[in-house]
Amino acid sequence: MRITSAVVATVTTISMAATTGAQTPQWPIPGKTIRIVLPFPAGGAGTDMMARVIGKKLSDEVGVPVVVDNKPGASTIIGAQDVAKSAPDGHTLLYTIVITHTQNPHLFAKLPYDPFKDFTPLSQVARSATVLIANKDAPFNDFKGMIAYGKANPGKLNVASYSPGSTAHINAEMLRVASGVDMVHVPYKGVADAQKGLMSNEVQLYFDGTASAVTAIKNGTAKGMAAATDKRVPVLPDLPTIAEQGVQGIDIVGWQGFFGPGGMNPEVAKKISATLAKIVKSDEITTLIKSQGNEPTGTTGEEFAKIVRDDYDRWGAVIKRTGIKLE
């Protein structure tokens, strides 16, 4: 049988096309910058520091530039939308906290993204916590004293949050309902403003992230009231949880983690997940996470997806009880 050169060329072309089509998309793409979108202000929280440190190690690991792009506002919605609309090639990542995927969907009637379809869970970096702190000049020194003061002075306690619907806000509403203390919620535009409000005594209480709460307590610029966790925070071993002090139900632990846009190639997502987990489990990052009062995890994408789904249901039940709704 004679095979002409034209036939050979045609078969070769088809074969190469089929092989090319079956190949996994490359990650990282040589020379293409990886952008980590952070839905918080620069320098405003422990998440900003963590994103930058992990970003530097990620750049060293994969050999392409990594930049942190702060896109704060609207309860993390602005940053989340940016990532949801980006190409799913692994070069745009979202580093966020529990609010984006498990709280916002229950708070907003018209959320401009789907927490599951529009994102690919890549790796949970850490389990995080909030700590209830009080202004250093508050007329009480501990949690039980705060409860007694609040009941004796209805409406005199102001409690801050860094945005409506944030974990700080939800915890405050849960505390108000569970303790029977009439408190006034004061929302601020960001973590830094909420912390300033507490220090200046515009507000007397704030559910702060562990990193800044630990610093404030140890520096004497705030009083530690209780940990809003299921167990004591390791860096504050002498600070009891809220449950230990008689008020139940305010103990859902938060987290920080990475997501990509929805529709990512599974093999690319798996490669990114493994790379991030390796970085998180390094001595440098593990030490940093623990110093902030958080628990390092470095999960797989599959494990993180289950955590997100479970916490979506848990926070949904909590938000329904508080009655919080946002426009």
Report Rg: 23 Å
Oligomer: single chain
> How does the major sheet shape up?
6 strands, mixed
Q: Please give the share of residues in helix.
A: 40-55%
Number of helices in the DSSP assignment: 11
Poorly predicted sequence stretches spanning 5 or more consecutive residues: 7-21
Task: Identify the overall geometry.
Answer: globular
On the 0 to 100 scale, the average pLDDT is 92
Distance between the first and last residues' Cα: 74 Å
Strand order of the largest sheet: 2-1-3-10-4-11
Commentary on this structure:
The protein has helices at 5-22, 46-62, 77-84, 99-107, 143-152, 167-179, 191-199, 210-219, 266-280, 283-291, 301-322, and strands at 34-38, 66-70, 92-97, 119-128, 130-135, 157-161, 183-187, 205-209, 222-227, 254-261, 295-296. The strands form 2 sheets. The chain has a 6-stranded mixed beta sheet with strand order 2-1-3-10-4-11, sandwiched between helices. Strands 7-6-8-5-9 form a 5-stranded mixed beta sheet, with helices on both faces. Strand 6 (157-161), helix 6 (167-179) and strand 7 (183-187) form a beta-alpha-beta unit. It contains 11 helices and 11 strands. The N and C termini lie far apart (74 Å). The protein is α/β, with parallel strands linked by helices and 327 residues long.
